[in-house]
């Protein structure tokens, strides 16, 4: 196929797009290393004027970075495990439903809850948790994340389970495996790549989440996304832009590096279900 | 499969259905229930049934109309922008000489950055480093071309654009990924025969590839539309709804009415209305784009 | 497959480590929810470490942005978690958690706290809540304050500026007596980059006046200075709104003009006191000053230190109360104690901080509340600017508006004030529409609560 535009031109386009993707993050990273009263232009960011680690020191000391990081990790890992434990068997079961009507009905309800505005859930959850004493706790946030992630993860796993040839399972049944055994020993290992993708995506989504954490978590349970708001507003806030940048970098950089390392799982997770060859 | 009589798939599904009922069903029902009541945060024990009053008040409130409009502009804007950008990038990525190379894998890894970037941080980053009128990235780049950039987030004329671009930036990677994967499914023979007929490059894209992946374009558009419709984090951190009410999308209005003005009844009426709007949108969309049989 | 197993065992072990970390801390601690401001650094770096050293009691301070602070205190109170032991007390939001606040009378008596150090108006605005908690002291004031006017004294006294102003307005360049004069001065000083001010060429544009007006909270805080200067109270004894008065429309029209002609555009994205950093950089000629921000512009490190003049808020001629000067609400705050098992320990800390360490606290924060702080020579000698600042502060406080003690204050008055001003400023509604919307909502709220 003859492509219009030479290879070099196409590479230029792709590099340009890459710049759009990463430049804002790089600018913030550079800004976080500056004494913010000096930061007045982009070229200046590239120079060594006013270089300082002070913004990072404040992120750790006043910003209590490690405390919030610990909460972020607890929330993200707990949410990931709860979500997978609930959603994986569910997705498996759905693919095994014999009646197409039942299957369509349940797939449709999963799909439609996927579009639920989160704010619809946040207020009633807050009121409900307030009544049962779960506001301010990690449990509340994790349950909210379960609600947020369930439709997406079930959806994703459906695609992976549907890809397993039935002959494999039938052979296992003939060999005397129990239904749970088939699921646990035969099917689950076969969808392990999918499970990895689901786990990684669930982790990233929980780590980045702000609304539920903001509504439902007390300081003891607040993750990084809420912790950063400490530096928004206040008497000397003009001097705090650098700290916001440093804190923002400390939030965003680990997750970006993580995503770059496991990018093939993210790619397979996101394209599964949407694209069938 | 029906030979396995002792196997009941519902045993696997039921725990999920129950969990979903508790964490999704209960709050939705409760949202509707509260929306029929008068409930103030400072008088939590004083819940009075008012029927559809909260909805009636909303329908008459010019601010609600404004928010509905800005939410629609915002979500449609984000959808169009991210789908177009996604198609452009995925098409170039899919061209011969690039697809499948290690360079492509390298690019794709970095294209994920906006997708995994924490929304609140994206909002703050946008406000302090990207759209800042005096020293921000966008106006710096415009300045290189001799243009005098606008005030972006602090001008009513441009704030919505900047907000849409920021959110579309975050949404585009998903579109790139899905379109890239979908374009791989276009049979090579089709393209070759097109080439023989003299349709190469952009024409092949428009005439052959796009129609073949129209289903994926529809799917991505639906995902982006609904995800932008409910966006809170990015807008909250980027503009907080301002300037004035320019970017005060519905999810922010809910926050403002429910928490700041402590009117839980009206806030829940708004969020329930959002639910209705988004359900209608997705239903209509699924019919039109024939997405109903997705996932079979 | 090996890869997969490695990935999973890594995740599992990380989860276990973080789980262990989570369960690791346990010790008697007092939790304090705080508002940002100059006291935060003083507490963090001096008072809390010192108190911990002296008593062994651990104090954990959480600093939250103003809006989130009351939202969080409310959340914890509603959920009855006993989570915070102490909090920053801003009277306007007291109603949102008043049921969980400890009455202090017994503790004050038991520990011999000297309540006579506080003036009657401070007690009224910051320490009692006659409607929600009749007959009780519910908080200890720390920095009750109301905004004043701050200006660049060196520029006001510069002969070139004086001559130019005299020529243009036919009167000398001095601190304004009316809001209209404030506007003139602000317009006079609003200049583009390249122009000169006090003989020096500006590298960046100069703006005439500013406050931090991020809607709705910041906008409300700033705009209420106009509302209260108009002589309006919000509502009267029968809970009828006085906001339908046409003078409110004059006030908001003035505000729109002032903001559009003299504020830097960034002001609408600024949080509480953020504009003072801008002032200190020499980019503002005059500004609204909440006294807790005074160190930002006149403290030792500030580039503008020693060049600041202070004045009370100007009068609104024809205002409904014949006020001789302008006024805003008495804001700032105090400290309150939540009804937890730690309340006696919490009170001991507050007494130590605000009574025993009163002078030291003042030195480090420039915050005033107790009468001894206004006479203590050590306090008064600590900053040069107190000579000019304190008389203005005290005069303005005498006219400050103590907010009504109802739980509805935030929902009926404060937030809607910011929404009203923003809606008019940005032409979302006509001023009349916005006025009716505010007054209607206020009266509906009072009717719902059974006051009307």
Give the gist of this structure:
Chain B is mostly helical. Chain B has 14 helices and 2 strands; from the N terminus they run H-E-E-H-H-H-H-H-H-H-H-H-H-H-H-H. In chain B, strands 1-2 form a two-stranded antiparallel ribbon.
How would you portray this structure in words?
The complex is a heterotrimer of chains A (277), B (296) and C (452). Chain A is mainly alpha-helical. Chain A has helices at 7-32, 42-46, 54-60, 65-95, 100-113, 118-132, 138-162, 166-174, 179-190, 192-208, 211-216, 224-227, 241-261, 263-271. In chain A, α10 packs across α14 (263-271). Chain B has one domain (63-288): MetI-like (MetI-like fold). In chain B, a hairpin with a 2-residue loop joins β1 (37-40) and β2. In chain B, α1 (10-35) packs across α14 (264-288), α3 packs parallel to α8 (159-183) and α13 runs antiparallel to α14. In chain B, 69% of the residues lie in helices and 4% in strands. Chain C is globular, with a radius of gyration of 24 Å. In chain C, α9 packs across α17 (409-425). Chain C is an alpha+beta fold and 452 residues long. The chains are: A mainly alpha (277), B mainly alpha (296), C alpha+beta (452). The interface between A and B is large, with 105 and 109 residues.
- Percentage beta strand of chain B: under 5%
Which structural category do the helix and sheet elements of chain B fall into?
mainly alpha
Strand segment count of chain A: 0
The sequence of SSEs of chain B as H and E is HEEHHHHHHHHHHHHH
What about the largest sheet of chain B?
Answer: 2 strands, antiparallel
What would the average pLDDT of chain B be, to the nearest integer? 86
Fraction of residues in β-strands of chain A: under 5%
What Rg of chain A, in angstroms, do the CA atoms define?
23 Å
- The CATH superfamily of the largest domain in chain A appears as MetI-like
Q: Can you tell me the overall shape of chain A?
A: globular
CATH homologous superfamily (4th level) name of chain B: MetI-like
Helical fraction of chain A: over 70%
| Rg over alpha carbons of chain B | 23 Å
Q: Average pLDDT of chain A, to the nearest integer? A: 85
Helical proportion of chain B, percent range: 55-70%
State the separation between the terminal residues of chain B, measured CA to CA: 16 Å
User: Oligomeric status of the shown chains?
Assistant: heterotrimer
How are helices and strands ordered from N to C of chain A?
A: HHHHHHHHHHHHHH
Count, helices of chain B: 14
Low-pLDDT segments, ≥5 res of chain B:
291-296
Q: Could you describe the largest sheet of chain A, including whether it forms a barrel?
A: none
């Amino acid at each position: 196929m003859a492509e219009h535009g030479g290879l070099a031109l196409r590479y230029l386009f792709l590099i340009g797009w890459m710049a759009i993707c990463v430049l804002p993050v790089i600018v913030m990273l550079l800004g976080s290393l500056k004494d913010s009263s000096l930061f007045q232009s982009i070229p200046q960011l590239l120079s060594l004027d006013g270089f300082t680690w002070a913004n990072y020191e404040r992120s750790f000391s006043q910003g209590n970075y490690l405390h919030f990081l610990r909460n972020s990790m607890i929330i993200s890992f707990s949410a990931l495990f709860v979500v997978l434990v609930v959603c994986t068997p569910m997705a498996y079961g759905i693919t095994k439903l014999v009646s197409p009507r039942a299957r369509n009905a349940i797939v449709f309800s999963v799909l439609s809850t996927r579009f639920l505005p989160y704010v619809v859930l946040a207020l009633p959850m807050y009121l409900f948790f307030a009544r049962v004493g779960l506001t301010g706790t990690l449990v509340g946030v994790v349950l909210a994340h379960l609600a947020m992630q369930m439709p997406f993860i079930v959806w994703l796993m459906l695609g992976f389970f549907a890809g397993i040839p039935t002959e494999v399972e039938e052979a296992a049944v003939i060999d005397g495996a129990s239904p749970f055994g088939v699921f646990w020993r035969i099917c689950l290992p076969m969808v392990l790549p999918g499970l990895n993708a689901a786990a990684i995506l669930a982790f990233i989504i929980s780590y980045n989440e702000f609304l539920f954490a903001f509504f439902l978590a007390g300081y003891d349970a607040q993750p990084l996304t809420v912790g950063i708001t400490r530096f928004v507003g206040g008497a000397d806030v003009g001097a705090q832009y650098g700290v916001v940048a440093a804190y923002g970098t400390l939030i965003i950089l680990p997750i970006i590096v993580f995503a770059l390392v496991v990018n093939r799982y993210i790619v397979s997770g996101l394209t599964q279900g949407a694209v069938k060859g | 499969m029906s030979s396995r009589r002792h196997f009941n798939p519902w045993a696997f599904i039921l725990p999920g259905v129950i969990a979903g009922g508790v964490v999704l069903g209960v709050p939705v029902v409760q949202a509707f229930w509260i929306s029929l009541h008068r409930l103030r945060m400072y008088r939590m024990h004083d819940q009075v049934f008012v029927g559809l009053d909260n909805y009636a008040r909303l329908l008459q409130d010019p601010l609600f109309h404004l928010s509905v409009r800005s939410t629609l502009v915002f979500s449609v804007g984000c959808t169009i922008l991210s789908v177009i950008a996604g198609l452009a990038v995925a098409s170039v990525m899919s061209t011969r000489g690039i697809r499948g190379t290690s360079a492509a894998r390298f690019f794709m890894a970095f294209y994920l950055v906006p997708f995994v970037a924490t929304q609140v941080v994206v909002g703050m980053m946008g406000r302090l480093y990207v759209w800042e009128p005096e020293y921000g990235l966008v106006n710096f780049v415009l300045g290189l071309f001799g243009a005098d950039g606008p005030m972006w987030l602090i001008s009513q004329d441009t704030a919505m654009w900047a907000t849409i671009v920021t959110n579309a930036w975050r949404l585009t990677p998903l579109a790139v990924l899905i379109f890239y994967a979908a374009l791989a499914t276009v049979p090579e023979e089709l393209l070759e025969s097109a080439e023989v007929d003299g349709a190469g490059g952009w024409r092949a894209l428009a005439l052959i590839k796009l129609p073949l992946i129209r289903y994926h374009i529809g799917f991505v558009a639906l995902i982006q539309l609904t995800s932008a419709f409910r966006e809170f984090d990015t807008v909250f951190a980027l503009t907080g709804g301002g300037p004035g009410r320019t970017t005060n999308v519905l999810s922010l209005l809910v926050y403002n009415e429910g928490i700041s003005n402590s009117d839980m009844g009206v806030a829940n009426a708004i969020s329930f209305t959002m639910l209705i709007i988004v359900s209608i949108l997705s239903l209509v969309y699924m019919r039109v784009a024939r997405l109903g049989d997705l996932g079979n | 497959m090996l890869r997969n197993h490695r990935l999973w065992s890594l995740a599992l072990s990380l989860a276990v480590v973080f789980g262990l970390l989570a369960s690791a801390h346990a010790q008697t601690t007092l939790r304090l929810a705080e508002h940002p401001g100059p006291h935060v650094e003083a507490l963090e770096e001096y008072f809390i470490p010192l108190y911990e050293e002296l008593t062994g009691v651990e104090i954990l301070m959480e600093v939250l942005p103003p809006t989130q602070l009351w939202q969080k205190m409310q959340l914890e109170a509603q959920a009855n978690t006993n989570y915070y032991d102490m909090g920053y007390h801003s009277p306007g939001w007291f109603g949102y958690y008043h049921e969980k606040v400890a009455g202090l009378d017994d503790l004050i008596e038991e520990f011999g706290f000297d309540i006579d150090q506080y003036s009657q108006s401070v007690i009224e605005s910051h320490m009692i809540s006659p409607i929600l908690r009749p007959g009780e002291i519910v908080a200890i004031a720390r920095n009750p304050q109301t905004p004043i006017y701050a200006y660049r004294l060196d520029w006001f006294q510069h002969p070139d500026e004086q001559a130019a102003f005299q020529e243009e307005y036919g009167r000398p360049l001095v601190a304004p007596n009316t809001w209209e004069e404030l506007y003139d001065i602000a317009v006079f000083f609003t200049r583009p980059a390249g122009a000169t001010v006090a003989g020096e060429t500006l590298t960046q544009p100069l703006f005439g006046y500013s406050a931090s007006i991020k809607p709705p909270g910041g906008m409300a805080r700033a705009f209420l200075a106009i509302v209260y200067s108009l002589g309006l109270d919000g509502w009267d004894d029968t809970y009828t709104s006085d906001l339908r008065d046409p003078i409110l429309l004059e006030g908001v029209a003035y505000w729109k003009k002032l903001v559009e002609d003299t504020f830097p555009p960034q002001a609408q994205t600024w949080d509480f006191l953020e504009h003072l950093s801008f002032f200190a950089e020499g980019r503002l000629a005059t500004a609204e000053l909440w006294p807790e921000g005074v160190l930002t512009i006149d403290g030792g490190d500030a580039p503008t230190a020693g060049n600041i003049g202070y004045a009370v808020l100007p009068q609104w001629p024809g205002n409904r109360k014949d006020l001789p000067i302008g006024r805003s609400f008495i804001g700032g705050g105090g400290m309150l104690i939540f009804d937890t098992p730690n309340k006696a320990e919490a009170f001991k800390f507050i007494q130590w901080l605000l009574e025993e360490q009163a002078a030291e606290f003042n030195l480090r924060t420039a915050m005033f509340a107790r009468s001894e702080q206004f006479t203590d020579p050590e306090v008064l000698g600590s900053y040069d600017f107190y000579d000019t600042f304190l008389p203005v502060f005290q005069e303005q406080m005498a006219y400050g508006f103590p907010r009504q003690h109802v739980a509805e204050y935030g929902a009926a008055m404060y937030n809607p004030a910011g929404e009203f001003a923003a809606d008019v400023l940005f032409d979302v509604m006509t001023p009349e529409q916005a006025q009716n919307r505010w007054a209607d909502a206020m009266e509906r709220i009072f009717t719902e609560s059974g006051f009307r």
